Structures are given as C-alpha cells and as structure tokens.
Amino acid sequence: MATKSQASIFMVFTATLLVAINGDPQVPCYFIFGDSLMDNGNNNHLHTNAKVNYEPYAQLLGFESFIQPFATARSDDIVKGVNYASGGAGIREESGQHLGERISFDNQIKNHRITILRLIFLVGRGSLVATKKYLHKCMYTVGMGNNDYINNYFAPEYYNTSSLYSPEEFALLLVEQYSQQLQALYAYGARKFGIFAAGYSGCTPGMMAIYGMNSCVDSVNSAIILFNTHLNTILNELNTKYPDAKFIYIDAPLQYPTDLNVTDKPCCEVESIDGKGNCSPDHIPCSNRQNYVFWDSFHPTERVSVIDGTQAYTTLSPLYASEAISSLVDNEEGHFSNA
Questions:
Q1: A Gene Ontology CC term for this entry (predicted)?
Q2: What share of the chain is helix, strand, coil (3-state, %, to 5)?
Q3: In the chain, at which residue ranges do the beta strands (DSSP E only) sit?
C-alpha cells in the first residue's frame, strides 16, 4: 500500500499461507504477486518511500523456509516459488508513482516470465511443455487493487482518475485490466489462483485522517465494494472460460474478535501529524498492540494478519487439496510431478 514502516508488519497473507507441518509442502511451488501487504524485499534497493524490508510472520503450507523475493531469489529458491510483490504497486501502471519506484503488476508478470525461462532448465529439462506442467501444480496468489484506490483514485492531488471516471467506471476499467493480467499468467502456465479482494481502505486510520473523520469513510468503501463485486464476477467468468484452472476469490473475515477494538488509530506514531503515512522511527509503539487492528495508518497488525491469513488458507483449500490428490496419481502413474 503506502510507505515504509518501522515494524515487521508486511507480508500479511503470503507468509501466513506457509505452517510448519511434517512431510512435503502441500503444493510444490508458490508464486506471489501484490503490493506492500505481500512484498518481502523487492523494494529494498529501489528509490522509493515504500520499503518493505522486514521478515514475514508465520507459516502454513509446509515449506521449510519463506518464499524468496524476486530481487534476491537464487536458482534453488525459484523451484519452490518466487515473491514478486512490490510496495506501492497497482493494477494500473501509474498507481503509487508519487511514492517512487515500484514494480507494477504488469512488470511483476514480466519478472515471472524471466523466472519461467530459468525454470525451463531447472525443472523442465529444457522443455517449456514440461515446465508448464510443473507450473500447473503451483499456487498463485495475487493481491492487487489497494494502491489503485489509496494511491491513485483517492489521491486527486497526484492523479486525475477520479475526475475522469465515476467509481463504477473506474471499477470496471480496473477489473478489465486485471482480467487481462490474470489471463497472461494463465497463458504462462498458472492454473491455481487465489485472488484477494481489495481492502476496505475507508476504514484505515490514514484514510479517516485524510477525510477528517473518526469512522469509516463510506464513499471510499463504496467504490472498493464496486471493484470487489466486479472482481468476483470476472473470476466466475474466468472459471467458466478456463475449466482446467481454478480462480478463487478471497475476502476478508466478516468479523474479528471483540477485543480487537482499536480501529480508528494506529499502534505506532506515524510520520505526519494528520495521521497519514507509516511509523516514525525511534518511537515506542502502543503497549497493547493485540487490541489494535492497524499497526500504522494503512497496514494491519500481526494479529489481524494471522487471522486474515488463516482464513485465506482455509478458502484456498481446493487448490492444495486437489494438488495432493493429483500428486498421488502422478506418482502412481510415473508422470512428471515435482522437480
């Protein structure tokens, strides 16, 4: 989403989707696309305010180590997956550009193509067909759209999209572009998709501060609900168009525990007095962080991240459950399965 934070709150879903369990990983490989909620190092050496240089949290899919960022992943890393996410990135190329350098979703897809060219020799034995068969078994999660609203549509001081498009028009425009991008990943071999809904940014402390409110900004949330509704529709259409693939829509939990009751302010002291931005350095955060929904002005706390990640893991069960069954069949028949 926004800018650099002074605590390890990033990697909300991607790491929580990885638990230490006995046995092999539930999928052979895992590819991650998204923004600062997913980024675990790709922005570290870019000229940007959106740094995400902290360790991710927990694990759930059985991998022995975290999926490495594209910026530093080595050959033995990419066989089990790559994280392409970039803080500040969006579906649209210009989203987040006022923050500095970032890797848009289009460019994350280009980086994935580079990975595939390397995988041809690592797992495909020189064969693109065999490599795509390997990729068919991998899980792909994508979390995009947050910055297209926070750092584009609802940032009129930097972007003119809100004057060019109504919320409905912008949502349709975004989802159409998103659909083309997901289909590009399909063409490269992806078959198991988990697509995160955009967050209700109107309920972030940062957006409340921008609008001078102490409760959720309905106009912001209404626009994002339009996007999520159209996104769900387009994923259903893609499931029909590509019966050999599965596109799963991942929404946020309907409610959190009642003791998660601090929703209108961040746990840490933020960089600007009006509540925008992220944690200021060298300041002690709140002592009861377990009660806070947001760590800084836009990003959730670890507790919320674990709750959201656990629900995402459950929602995605058709992807890794079907992979476990197909792996048994492949091994029984002597087919190419894991590299």
A1: extracellular region
A2: 40, 10, 50
A3: 30-34, 81-83, 139-143, 192-196, 246-250
Q: What b/e readout covers 292-320, taking b as 16+ CB neighbours within 10 angstroms?
A: bbbbbbbbbbbbbbbbbbbbbbeebeebb
Chain segment 36-92, per-residue pLDDT in tens = 888 777 877 877 766 665 544 464 555 566 788 998 998 888 999 999 999 899 999
Name which of 5-9, 108-112, 288-292 the model is least confident about.
5-9
Tokens 């797992």 found at:
123
Q: Closest by alpha carbon to 300, among 1, 12, 5?
A: 12
Task: Examine the pLDDT at 289 and tell me if it is beyond 80.
Answer: yes
Closest CA to 242 of 164, 188, 174: 188
In 3D, which of 145, 50, 46 has the Cα closest to residue 90?
A: 145
CA distance 184 to 326: 24
- In this prediction, residues 201-217 reach a mean pLDDT of 92
Token couple for 151: 């750092």
| Dihedral of alpha carbons 219, 143, 108, 3, sign | positive
Cβ 145 vs Cβ 174: under 8 Å: yes
Q: Quickly state the pLDDT bin for 306 (edges 50, 70, 90).
A: confident
Domain 30-258+300-333 has CATH 1.20.1740: no
Residue keyed to tokens 């902290």: 54
What does the DSSP assignment read for 168-207?
A: HHHHHHHHHHHHHHHHHHHHTT--EEEEEPPP-GGGSHHH
C-alpha distances (whole Å) from 211 to each of 157, 234, 300, 335 are: 14, 31, 20, 58
Boundaries of every domain in the chain = 30-258+300-333
pLDDT reading at 261 higher than 50: yes
Considering the chain, what is the average pLDDT of its residues?
83
